[in-house]
Amino acid sequence: MDESTMDDGSSLQTLLVGIDAACDRVLAPLFEDNEVPTLESIYRNGTSGALESQIPPWTASAWPSLYTGMNPGKHGVYGFLSFDGYDWDVVNATDVRERTLWELLDRHGVTSVVVNVPVTYPPRAFDGALIPGYTAPEDPDCHPEGVLEDVRGAIGEYRVYPDGDTDDLGTKYSDCVRMRGEAFRYLADRYDPEFGFLEFQATDSIFHKRPDDKAAISAIYREVDRQLNEILEAHEPTNVIVASDHGMGPYDGHEFRINEYLREAGFVETERGGTGMPTWATVRDGNLKEGKDAAEYEPGVAERAMAAAARVGLTSQRLGAILERLGLDDLAAAYAPAGLVSAGATQVDFRASSAYVRSRIELGVRINLEGREPDGVVPPSEYESVRTQLIDALRAVTTPDGDPVFETVGRREEYFHGPESDDAVDIVTVPADFQHFISATLRDEQFGPPSEPWNHKLEGTVAAYGDDIDHAAGVGDAHLFDIAPTVLSTLGVPFDERMDGEPLPCVEAAGTRQYPRLEEDRSIETADEGVEKRLADLGYLE
Questions:
Q1: What angle is formed at CA 540 by the lines to CA 535 and CA 541, rounded to 5 degrees?
Q2: What pairing do the DSSP bridges indicate for beta strands 195-200 and 112-115?
Q3: Which residue windows are coiled coil (predicted)?
Q4: DSSP 373
């Protein structure tokens, strides 16, 4: 270690490094090729193992579970979208109804620096600094006010999202990784925190874009390793914990379009040329999400004409099939405004349907229940019978090869418990071994090839190293919910007795206490077209 780079006065007790989508499948070849020596040394010299994610194992819900230690039924975030009746918005920090790690630490006088963690915009006040990550706008409010400008003044450019003008994914994602590390070091120097939390998102994004681009994947992870090494040298944390929110791997099965199945089974009703919620407009399974942002196109004659055409049967989906046969679908995807596609799509009529899938990454079916939904059509007296009917039907669904589509189909209370459970899907559908891509799109066929060849898996990774880590004790059967109580225990802070996890065996538990739930209003809307387009570009919004 270069002593000239060390901060002798550093107070950093525990550094939590979040590496989105990291897992053995991804890390093993990098370790074998000596691409990430710093990261590998934490695994080799400390203790490590698989980290089971939650249902659903997707970024926007999983990171809040990790940093609250609670299931979505308590913290309230189930995916990238929040719903109010049939209206929706991209989730933000006001949707997280439980206290975060850094807020609990603040109650005990512990300072924190948090950089790039998803669903942390807008930040709430605490002792320290925070630059939000995914679902924040490109120039977000940070904590304290003005800190982002200070960071940019100190390190140069800082972006929440990659530069859209750069075609080289390896370069633009690596640039984001570099910015995260430089921003964290600047803030750690300035605030001298006892806890640091730095998340890298690019390690997930590259697999949604180009899972076979080994050069880009290696470049991104090398930059992660470089930044981690510089942080360790500069601040010498007493403990380092590495954790991912889920794993990543190939989808070798089929795409199952569950709303199409529900339509044919009589549960989903559709409309043509309507508004939908959200838009299920696609050409060749989503490539139109690469087109212009809807905000750049004023609704007008074209949309009205497309909506009228859809009402008589010429929908975006049918037009897309024609364009695909003519070899023109990629051209259309590059130039067609999203608003035009939306106007011409066959969409789920949520108000008229008895059951439907709102968003594919919720991994489940929502029943249009009378008295709960604004225009519910299923009477409460029929709720359980409808739910049982759907569960039995979905359990029996098989692929064209005769294999079960779902590993588990169950009631939501088997997965979610807490005061926010009413926002969950009514029926949870877990794809078999996460080999099948579950889609909410409406197409003429229930099955097709997966829209993304790689996607999320249930098994992530965790590693821990440091003075307060018992390396011989191991991590046991580690779960995502265990990370928050583990981090708190390394800092000697009692964890919330309502947390669903426990400290990992490798740390000494600091005991529990009761903390109050948040009482703040959900008064902030994300309503950012740029955020929505970025999520669509990565396949999170269809």
A1: 80
A2: parallel
A3: none
A4: B
Query: What is the distance in angstroms between the CA of the first residue and the CA of the last residue of the chain?
Result: 47
Q: Tell me the torsion sign for CA atoms 82, 87, 88, 94.
A: negative
Express each pLDDT in 110-150 by its tens digit. 999 999 999 999 999 999 999 999 999 999 999 999 999 99
DSSP code, position 203: H
Identify residue 22 by its one-letter amino acid code: A
Buried-exposed string 103-112: b where 16+ CB fall within 10 A, e elsewhere:
bbbbeeebbb
Is residue 275 very low, low, confident or very high in pLDDT (cuts 50, 70, 90)?
low
pTM of the model: 0.86
The lowest-confidence range among 157-161, 334-338, 421-425, 525-529 is: 334-338
How far is C-alpha 525 from the chain's CA centre?
Answer: 18
Instruction: Give 55's Cβ-side CA count (13 Å radius).
Output: 22
Q: Is 8 exposed, middle or buried (0-12, 13-18, 19+ CB in 10 A)?
A: exposed
Closest CA to 200 of 179, 220, 177: 177
Distance CA 282, CA 138 (A): 26
**What are the beta bridge partners of residue 365?**
427
Q: Please report where in the chains the tokens 């206290």 appear, as a residue.
A: 99
pLDDT of 327 > 80? The answer is no
Q: What is the pLDDT of residues 488-540, one digit of tens each?
A: 999 999 999 999 999 999 999 999 999 999 877 655 666 565 665 665 555 55
Instruction: For the chain, state the CA radius of gyration.
Output: 23
Domains of the chain: 14-251+455-538 (3.40.720.10), 255-279+346-451 (no CATH)
Task: Determine the Cα–Cα distance for residues 280 and 258; give it in Å rounded to an integer.
Answer: 12
Taking the C-alpha atoms of residue 223 and residue 534, their distance in angstroms, rounded to an integer, is 22
**What number is the average pLDDT over the span 204-226?**
96
Dist. CA 329–CA 313, nearest whole Å: 19
Query: Helices in 210-358 by DSSP H: which ranges?
Result: 214-235, 258-264, 301-311, 316-326, 329-335, 338-343
Q: Which residues have a Cβ under 8 Å from the Cβ of 251 and sit 6 or more positions away? A: 434, 435, 436, 437, 450, 452, 453, 454, 455
Q: What's the DSSP call for residue 249? A: E
**Residue whose entry in the numeric block shows the structure tokens 């669509």:** 536
